[in-house]
Amino acid sequence: MKNIILSYNMPDMDGVACMYAYSELLNKQEQKTGYFINGEPKKEVKIVCEMFNIKLESEKSISDEDKIILVDTNQPFELNQKIKLNNVIEIIDHHKKSEELDKMPNAKIQIEEVGAAATLVAEKYKLFNYEISRNAAILLYYGIISNTVNLNSKITTERDRKMVEWLEKSCTDISEEKIKEIFEKKSIFENSLREEMEVEYKDPFLKISWSMGQLEVANVDGFLEKEEKKIRKILDEVQSEKNVEYLSINCVDILNGYSIIIAQNKKTEELISDLLNINFSNGKAKANQFLTRKEIVKIVREKYGK
Fold first, then answer.
1. Which one, of 172, 150, 174, lies nearest residue 161 by Cα?
2. Is 190 strand, coil or helix?
3. pLDDT digits 0-9 by tens, 153-181
4. Angle at Cα 179 formed by Cα 192 and Cα 168, nearest 5°?
5. Any domain includes 187
6. Is 188 among the domain residues?
């Protein structure tokens, strides 16, 4: 029996960073701990790991006796369905609290409003004054950078900024110069555009049938010149397959600081225009500021939440 750290299926940079680094920390505390990555992680994880020669060593399986720790999620529906929720002993997250937390009665819960769950894990290293490894520091650093769009998102807190500064001091391999390189590589989608859009899932916290995906690219205008037709085709396919009433994609320019939202239909245009006070033309609206999906979701939930 051991502790197994999980995030949601096909985790992003933040989730993988938390799994790796918190596993390391607990092992320093002589708690036998591993982590389990369910599904293929998001592309950015591969980019960072290859750039810094970091090897992820996920557990191959989880036993019924293993104690489960969740990071960057507190939603049962996002987990491997074989997981026994009674075995969950801890949750570290920064998302909205699940209405099903009572299904995990044995969990010690830490859910706090910061830009990245990686910030919460980094704070534990600093609090306990444990030396952090090069790999854990790199992953936590880019977990925060990714989730907060290089500290520009409105969800960024002073705690995120402090941990980024601390991690920079903790590892000489960390540099701001690498951020641009990572973001530029992240903007190349090849055959994975639909997967990267993440537009498949309806928001379970809303009364309306609504889904918004997000793409983070280094030059939105140039990107859309080449890819807009493909994006619209994917939106049409998803609308037909999933029967989503309101459907859109938020395209964030991660280097130049603005967003372009593409709506799948007029109803979606009207809803977003009303909530965000932005105007659509030919199915597109430009926000001259960093505007992430998480920020938009929060606004939508305030009006249409269950």
1. 150
2. coil
3. 888 999 999 999 999 999 999 988 888 88
4. 135
5. no
6. no
Q: Pick from 140, 162, 118, 294: which is nearest to 216 by CA?
A: 294
Q: Which domain holds residue 151?
A: 3-182
Of 102, 104, 122, 103, whose CA–CA distance to 112 is shortest? 122
Q: Which two tokens stand for residue 287?
A: 């926000």
- Whether residue 247 is found in the same domain as residue 227: yes
Tokens for 42, please give them.
């998001």
> Cα(77)–Cα(80) distance, rounded to whole angstroms?
8
- pLDDT tens figures, 75-107: 988 887 778 999 999 999 999 898 889 999 999
DSSP string, 40-104: PPPHHHHHHHHHHTPPP---S---TT-EEEEES---GGGS-TT--GGGEEEEEE-SPPPTTGGG-
What does residue 274 show for φ and ψ, rounded to 5 degrees? -65, -45
